[in-house]
Design goal:
single chain; about 1250 residues; mainly beta; about 5% helix; disordered N terminus
């Protein structure tokens, strides 16, 4: 069985299933009779359609299906469901001829798979089912074709096979293999090549060899193309280029940055993929293909369209009779979607439904007014454009029902002090009930601090306090009735660790005690846990956990770590940690110092109403005198289990006189202290109770501050339980308006720290005082403090605003102060807002960001710094009090005068010659006025950085370039340039330049040397005795030509060698030149900034050709035989020498060799320019001044330049005729076993030298 879909249709089916809905289906817009087809089954509970296609053709059930659900409340429909059979057609038969192509040209192997549903996945493989390797040169395009940017001989094969995998049917189709033959036209006779070109129509490309060339695009074609993408989809842009060398492809967006978080590159940078396409992704994307010969560009213009998408879908409505409701169907898309409304299914479009005055359609909105009972219905919104559609159902239920409170009654909410509390009051009714909250027997709670009533009826208390505890009643009411519900809030005291564990250093085998005393709400059940290094304590009997401590007996090194005590309750927790360090036990000293033992035998004497005398017997001091005694008390009535410090006595005393408070249940204990630490507490004394009394003190920190414009909040710090002196503690709050003849008003409250006086005038002084009262009387007469009722925003703006402009960047603003009665609060100051409208150069406004300055106090003036000259400004002023800002004054405009300009935007030096150069400049970014001109100053700088005389020139404001003539050649000049207005000159910018030196300042010569089998040339350069700069390098450039003049035009590939410069003449040996070949040589001089400061004329060198009758000794048989005989003789001598030395005989050959060295084996003499004899070993000797590493290789000094730096090759090797081939060969990667030897075969010339 194949289930087609099983999705919830609309909220109607989820929320209104009574009576149970009936289901029906349509296919291709007509009714689909499920009962007439035995292969089709509809599940009765959900309406899910199941089709059995076993043994049947699936295409018989293709089509567009839609489900409809109905009950007496209305009709809902599902989205369209498309059913199509997956297809995997066969490849059409075709005969594939071999494709012949010459080396270096581009090639495309087409795949063109059959169209399937869904489309197939394409890949290329060989006969062995191995994927063909792909890289930057060979890659598969998005359409499946295989692209070659250039072909190589290795591309010849007969098994290029394209495969198409159809994922849904799990089948793979194979295209006929394609044969590709790559020909090297340089190796084919011209006649044969012409025959191929004439007879074989399968030959790809022209006969002429395809050499290196600039890139061009194979796909897409042309300089530009367009592509469309859908919002939310995936955008794939592709650029495939051909060329030799293989081009590299890069991407950028012309009108902005690429979306880095959503983009990725594929297919070796040839494909740019952007996921989750947005409207901002539209624009021009440029792909660039680049190789060493040039680059090509292609621009793809991307247009982003969008299928319809929701901004806000229509929501279900519950309306009471005669109410008004609005259904909104907000969608967007490109093109703009068309919106169609229908009611109870698509059968009755709303626009064609019977005339109903209570229903009005306005594009994306349906307005329902004065609805009647029985008009419940399901409305459908359909939004569509050419790229898709959206369908939404909204149930409008016309219902008249009295309120119901859904929150369970008598819920108890518990919260910790200073945390928010949320009391629920979920309700249902039609019309929607109004929620009102009450606390205890008080009046209704309004939306004011600390209470917030949310739209769903929930009551929020921002910062819950103990006074917020109590019974709360929520009432839900509409015109059909009223319902109420009661909940309870309990605000608990937070859990706090009073005595935290402390860091301890304990000797091994001693005892460690961590204290952890906790205070918590007495109604909550606490749980104490101890952790070691955030894990459980070891299962060891040495660890003893008490109610307020952890004891570790006989500690070891394994006990080191961090110990944490965690106190948990059902509502909160608190924790504290300390470290334990275990040290080695020191040798037993003569005297052991320890904490004293706790005092004993505590006794209470001289018992009075407000005092008692405590005596005790000290414990053992353990060799350390007691320094003091600490007396602590516990109040079992107000804070059971919590001990407080009461007093301290000297270590020599054993009696303490204790002052007590009324209405307390005291227990006392004593701790002894010496230099080691505190003793354990003594056993508690017997309980001592004091009688209640009237309060001794009143609340402190009494303040009167208004939070609203018509109230006064009187707050104070509550008394502690010990300060209450008796039961029934309350606070008598008194207030009256200051300087007004009226009586004191009062109110008595309990368990509160503030009282709100409502209906007060705005910001007037009040006298307030708070007195403590309990069942036994009143506290002392309180002192009155002055407070103010709430502020309101000011009513008027400052007047008579004037601006006095001081200069181009500073202005003074003056105003008349606002009357105190209009401030309506505590004056904070005056806020001046000002902004720059535009420069006076500009006719149109270009308003900048607003700036604000606040002048504190009752000011009537202020300064505005940081203004821009020659500009139009606007400002206004507001008065500010503690509540906010008043209305602004009318906008006032003022202008700033001209100022000095900014620096010129740029200064460029061009067309430098021997005695002249060109200066170009741009106007300042900030003119700050009308430009009157420019000033140029310049002076020469010699080689020791000394400055010469200054020349000065003036230019009008409309000039931007000047040519300076009559300059000294080979001289460095420094230029100073600035702009001017009538106010003066602006900042100066500087530049430097060097004039070109005279061609006669240096002399360039060359010499050519020949030694039968070796040809070399010397070049030398003699610089001028004085240069205004230091020479960094001589860059010697050599151009190779054919032996026969004239020299061919076209590309000129210079071989470059870089040598260090010097102040004297410089000679450089050019090696590896071909006999009979002409060369052009030139010398380029660069300074330390790598800028070219001189280039000589080209010098033509022609090397003599090797005589045709010259015989190569390496190919003569007699010479080879002679060399073999000499080698055999040397081998025999070595064997004899070895035998003699083993027998102990003397062998004086070595001494003779040391005394008579072979004069022929001498190094090359570079100093006098002559040639010595060459040997094979000399090629591996380091240059003079270089260092040879321990591994035997020659390391090039970092400052030396070589051909490796200027050519593409990495190894400077020579071919058989002695020419240099490193420029065009890639760097060779040597295996580790090759050592320092070259992997190339030695040339005959080197072979000859090795025998000399």
């Amino acid at each position: 069985d194949l289930p087609l879909f099983n999705t919830p249709l609309t909220p109607l089916l989820q929320y209104h299933r009574k009576p149970h809905p009936s289901f029906s289906w349509t296919r291709n817009g007509t009714h689909f009779d499920v009962e007439k087809d035995s292969k089709v089954l509809m599940k009765p509970s959900s309406g899910t359609l199941v089709i059995d296609i076993s043994g049947e053709k699936a295409e018989a059930y293709e089509g567009i299906y839609q489900c409809t659900a109905r009950n007496e409340h209305g009709t809902a429909v599902s989205n369209n469901i498309f059913i199509r059979q997956s297809r995997s057609p066969l490849w059409s038969k075709e005969r594939k001829e071999a494709i012949m192509v010459q080396v270096g040209v581009s090639l495309v192997l087409q795949c063109r798979p059959p169209a399937g549903l869904p489309p197939p996945i394409i890949f290329w493989m060989d006969n062995n089912f191995q994927r063909l390797p792909q890289n930057t040169r060979v890659s598969q395009a998005l359409n499946g074709d295989l692209y070659f940017s250039n072909v190589l001989l290795d591309d010849t094969r007969n098994d290029y096979i394209c495969y198409a995998r159809f994922p849904h049917t799990q089948t793979i189709q194979q295209k006929q293999p394609i044969t590709v033959k790559v020909l090297d036209m340089d190796a084919i006779n011209e006649t044969v090549a012409a025959l191929y070109n004439y007879t074989n129509n399968l030959f790809v490309g022209e006969y002429s060899p395809s050499g290196e060339r600039r890139p061009s695009f194979m796909a897409p074609l042309g300089r530009s193309s367009t592509q469309m993408a859908l919002r939310g989809g995936v955008l794939e842009l592709e650029c495939i280029a051909e060329g030799l060398p293989t081009p590299e492809v890069s991407w950028y967006k012309e009108s902005g940055d690429l979306p880095s978080s959503r983009m990725s590159f594929h297919n070796f940078q040839k494909t740019l993929k952007i996921a989750d396409v947005m409207e901002a992704d539209a624009g021009d994307y440029r792909c660039t293909a680049k190789n060493s010969l040039g680059s090509a560009h292609h621009t793809i213009k991307v247009n982003v369209k969008a299928a319809p998408f929701w901004i806000s879908a229509p929501r279900n409505l519950i309306l009471a009779p005669k109410e008004t409701g609005i259904l909104t169907c907000r969608v967007s898309g490109d093109p703009k979607p068309q919106i169609a409304w229908s009611v109870n299914g698509p059968v009755i479009p709303l626009i064609d439904s019977p005339k109903d005055t209570s229903r009005k359609v306005e594009d994306d909105t349906v307005i329902l007014s004065d609805v009647q009972t029985g008009s419940s219905a399901v409305y459908q919104c359909n939004a569509s454009n050419e790229f898709g559609y959206l369908l939404a159902n909204a149930f409008v239920n016309v219902l008249a029902e009295a309120p119901r409170v859904l929150t369970p009654p008598n819920n108890v909410y518990q919260v910790i002090t200073n945390n928010p509390a949320f009391l629920d009051c979920a309700s249902f009714g039609s019309p929607i009930p109004t929620i009102t909250w009450f606390k205890d027997s008080q009046t209704s709670i309004l939306n004011r601090d600390p209470y917030v009533i949310h739209n769903n009826g929930t009551l929020e208390i921002n910062v819950a306090q103990s006074l917020n505890s109590g019974k709360y009643t929520c009432i839900a009411s509409n015109n059909l009735g009223t319902r109420e519900n009661h909940v309870y809030l309990e605000v608990k005291e937070p859990t706090r660790i009073l005595a935290q564990p402390e860091y301890m250093v304990v000797q091994r085998n001693r005892k460690a005690v961590f204290e952890c005393k906790v205070k918590h709400d007495p109604t909550l059940i606490p749980t104490m846990n101890w952790l070691k290094d955030n894990g459980e304590l070891p299962d060891d009997e040495r660890f003893l956990v008490d109610t307020d401590s952890l004891t570790i007996n006989e500690v070891t090194e394994e006990d080191e770590g961090t110990y944490t005590c965690v106190m948990n309750t059902t509502l909160d927790q608190d924790s504290a940690s300390a470290m334990l360090t275990v040290v080695e036990a020191t040798p037993t000293p003569a005297i052991v110092y320890e904490e004293p033992d706790p005092p004993t035998d505590l006794e209470l004497t001289d018992q009075r109403e407000r005092s008692v005398q405590l005596t005790w017997i000290p414990g053992d001091e353990h060799n350390s005198p007691t320094q003091k005694f600490l007396v602590q008390y516990e109040d079992l009535l107000h804070q059971a289990g919590v001990w407080h410090n009461l007093t301290e006595e000297e270590g020599t005393k054993t009696t303490a006189h204790l002052d007590l408070s009324p209405y307390a249940y005291y227990s006392f204990r004593v701790l002894a202290v010496n230099h080691v630490g505190y003793s354990q507490p003594s056993q508690p004394s017997r309980q001592y109770r004091t009688n209640p009394a009237a309060p001794d003190v009143n609340p402190t920190d009494v303040h009167g501050v208004g939070t609203e414009h018509n109230n006064l909040v009187i707050s104070w710090k509550e008394l502690t339980g010990l300060q209450s002196n008796g039961p029934g503690l309350q606070y008598k709050v008194n207030w009256r308006q200051k300087d007004v003849e009226e009586d004191w008003l009062s109110e008595t409250v309990a368990n509160a720290s503030k009282y709100v006086v409502s209906g007060t005038p705005t910001f007037v002084p009040y006298e307030v005082k708070v007195q403590a009262v309990n069942d036994y009387g009143n506290g002392p007469a309180p002192e009155a403090v002055v407070g103010y009722s709430g502020e309101d925003v000011p009513m008027s703006a400052p007047e008579s605003v004037q601006v006095l402009v001081q200069n181009g960047t500073l202005a003074e603003v003056h105003w008349e102060p606002v009357l105190t009665s209009m401030v309506r609060g505590r004056l904070q100051g005056y806020k001046v807002s000002y902004w720059r409208e535009r420069s006076l150069h500009q006719a149109e406004a270009q308003q900048e960001e607003q700036q604000v300055l606040l002048f504190s106090g009752n000011r009537t003036d202020g300064r505005l710094p940081g203004l821009k000259p020659y500009s139009l400004y606007t400002l206004n002023i507001r008065v500010v009090n503690g509540k906010g800002e008043g209305p602004p004054s009318p906008n006032h405009n003022f202008e700033t005068p001209e100022g000095v300009p900014g620096p010129p935007s740029f200064l460029r030096i061009k067309n430098t010659d021997m005695d002249s150069l060109t200066l170009e400049w741009g106007p300042p970014q900030d003119n700050n006025g009308r430009l009157t001109g420019y000033t140029l100053k310049y002076q020469p700088v010699n080689s020791s950085n000394e400055l010469g005389p200054v020349e000065e020139m003036m230019f009008p404001a409309n000039e931007t370039t000047v040519v300076l003539a009559d300059l000294k050649y080979s001289t460095r000049y420094k230029f100073y340039f600035n702009a001017k207005t009538i106010k003066g000159s602006g900042p100066t910018i500087t530049e430097e330049a060097v004039t070109i030196m005279d061609e006669g300042d240096g002399m360039f010569t060359s010499k050519v040397f020949s030694n039968k089998t070796f040809f070399s040339a010397y070049t030398s350069y003699h610089p001028h005795k004085y240069l205004p700069f230091s020479i960094h390098t001589f860059l010697l450039s050599i151009l190779t030509f054919s032996p026969t003049p004239p020299f061919p035009p076209g590309k000129e590939d210079w071989t470059k060698e870089c040598v260090n410069g010097s102040s004297g003449s410089q000679t450089y040996l050019i090696k590896g030149l071909k006999p009979g070949t002409s060369y052009r040589v030139r010398l380029v001089v660069k300074d330390h900034s790598e800028a070219t400061i001189h280039s000589t004329e080209e010098l033509v060198i022609t090397l003599p050709a090797m005589k045709s009758d010259q015989v190569d000794l390496a190919t003569q048989g007699w010479f080879i035989g002679l060399m073999c005989a000499i080698a055999l003789l040397i081998l025999v001598l070595l064997i004899i020498c070895f035998i003699k030395r083993n027998k102990g005989g003397k062998y004086p050959v070595k001494e003779k060799e040391d005394a008579h060295q072979d004069p022929e084996i001498q190094p090359m003499k570079d100093d006098d320019g002559t040639f010595g004899e060459y040997s094979d070993t000399e090629d591996h000797k380091p240059l003079k001044g270089s260092r040879t590493p321990s591994n035997g290789t020659v390391k090039r000094d970092d400052s030396d330049d070589s051909l490796v730096d200027y050519g593409e090759g990495g190894d400077g090797q020579f071919n058989e005729d002695g020419s240099f081939i490193g420029q065009y060969s890639g760097k060779k990667e040597k295996d580790t076993h090759e050592g320092n030897e070259s992997s190339e075969a030695p040339s005959p010339v080197n072979a000859m030298n090795s025998f000399v």
